[in-house]
Amino acid sequence: MVKIGIIGAGRIGKLHTENICYNVKRAEVVAIADIHMTDEIKRWAESLGITRCYKDYRKILAEKDIDAVLICSSTNTHAPISLEAIQASKHVFCEKPVDLKIDKIMEVIDALKGKKLKYQVGFNRRFDHNFRTIRQAVEKGEIGDPHIMKITSRDPAPPSIDYVKVSGGLFLDMTIHDFDMARYLVNSDVEEVYARGDVLIDEEIGKVGDIDTALISMKMENGTLAVIDNSRKAAYGYDQRAEVFGSRGMLSTSNDKPSTAILSNEKGTMGEKPLYFFLERYMESFRDEMTSFIDSIVNDEPVAVGVYDGLKSVMIGMAAKKSIEEGRPIKILEIEI
Amino acid sequence: MVKIGIIGAGRIGKLHTENICYNVKRAEVVAIADIHMTDEIKRWAESLGITRCYKDYRKILAEKDIDAVLICSSTNTHAPISLEAIQASKHVFCEKPVDLKIDKIMEVIDALKGKKLKYQVGFNRRFDHNFRTIRQAVEKGEIGDPHIMKITSRDPAPPSIDYVKVSGGLFLDMTIHDFDMARYLVNSDVEEVYARGDVLIDEEIGKVGDIDTALISMKMENGTLAVIDNSRKAAYGYDQRAEVFGSRGMLSTSNDKPSTAILSNEKGTMGEKPLYFFLERYMESFRDEMTSFIDSIVNDEPVAVGVYDGLKSVMIGMAAKKSIEEGRPIKILEIEI
Amino acid sequence: MVKIGIIGAGRIGKLHTENICYNVKRAEVVAIADIHMTDEIKRWAESLGITRCYKDYRKILAEKDIDAVLICSSTNTHAPISLEAIQASKHVFCEKPVDLKIDKIMEVIDALKGKKLKYQVGFNRRFDHNFRTIRQAVEKGEIGDPHIMKITSRDPAPPSIDYVKVSGGLFLDMTIHDFDMARYLVNSDVEEVYARGDVLIDEEIGKVGDIDTALISMKMENGTLAVIDNSRKAAYGYDQRAEVFGSRGMLSTSNDKPSTAILSNEKGTMGEKPLYFFLERYMESFRDEMTSFIDSIVNDEPVAVGVYDGLKSVMIGMAAKKSIEEGRPIKILEIEI
Amino acid sequence: MVKIGIIGAGRIGKLHTENICYNVKRAEVVAIADIHMTDEIKRWAESLGITRCYKDYRKILAEKDIDAVLICSSTNTHAPISLEAIQASKHVFCEKPVDLKIDKIMEVIDALKGKKLKYQVGFNRRFDHNFRTIRQAVEKGEIGDPHIMKITSRDPAPPSIDYVKVSGGLFLDMTIHDFDMARYLVNSDVEEVYARGDVLIDEEIGKVGDIDTALISMKMENGTLAVIDNSRKAAYGYDQRAEVFGSRGMLSTSNDKPSTAILSNEKGTMGEKPLYFFLERYMESFRDEMTSFIDSIVNDEPVAVGVYDGLKSVMIGMAAKKSIEEGRPIKILEIEI
Question: Which NCBIfam families does this chain map to (chains A, B, C, D) (predicted)?
Answer without folding.
Answer: myo_inos_iolG (TIGR04380)
